[in-house]
Design goal:
The protein is an alpha+beta fold. It is 47% helix and 13% strand. The protein is built from four helices and four strands. A four-stranded antiparallel β-sheet has the order 1-2-3-4, with helices on one face. A hairpin with a 5-residue loop joins strand 2 and strand 3. Helix 1 crosses helix 2 and helix 3 runs antiparallel to helix 4. The longest helix has 22 residues. The mean pLDDT is 77.
Length: 131
């Protein structure tokens, strides 16, 4: 979506491509009008939701995850569910396959002040044990 903001829309491949095209169009228009790249606050204010909830006849079934850094390098994560509600937790987000199992493992292994190595180990263990 931007220099420090990424979006990953899991689920159906055709819906993922549709959302990607809509999102690229909205981001390009925004950058052209405003003159700067998209920030996490812009994602909060509605770049994700209109791309996934455009019209009832072309409803897409994706649960996009957005992750990035705001201008002062504070981490940002959010996930949008199938009905368009954006959730912005402070620790982790999960979407798509084995969601319930991954939540259980992540809640068990996650601690607030993990370093890079511990965070990688906890992420790897959560994914391997949930799948």
């Amino acid at each position: 979506m931007g220099l420090k903001l990424y979006c990953g829309p899991p689920v159906l491949a055709t819906d993922t491509k549709t959302v990607e095209q809509r999102l690229n169009c909205r981001v390009n228009l925004y950058e052209f009008r405003k003159g700067h790249s998209v920030t996490p606050e812009d994602a909060r204010l509605g770049h994700l939701q209109p791309c996934c909830m455009s019209a009832a006849s072309v409803r897409t079934f994706v649960q996009p995850i957005a992750a990035g850094l705001d201008p002062v390098t504070k981490p940002y994560i959010c996930v949008m569910n199938l009905i368009g509600c954006i959730d912005e937790p402070t620790n982790f987000v999960i979407s798509d396959t084995c969601e319930e199992q991954c939540y259980g493992m992540c809640e068990t292994l996650w601690e607030p002040d993990h370093g890079p190595d511990e965070l990688f180990e906890a992420s790897a263990q959560a994914l391997m044990n949930a799948l």
